[in-house]
Amino acid sequence: LPPIRPIEFQIDLVPGAAPVARAPYRLAPSEMKELAEQLKELSDKGFIRPSSSPWGAPVLFVKKKDGSF
Length: 69
Description:
Layout: H1 29-44
């Protein structure tokens, strides 16, 4: 990670904007397992943290040529 800098980043939302309610993509059991492993690894390293924000992004896996994620 880059060094910590004295800059706060924020995203200014459009007043009155609301998140789009949409069901998440369905994941195969192998994708769910991979997702759990990647989330745990990134959380353990301190790269990500839990969030209760209504705004989010979908997860979409694309297999590499060797078949791994």
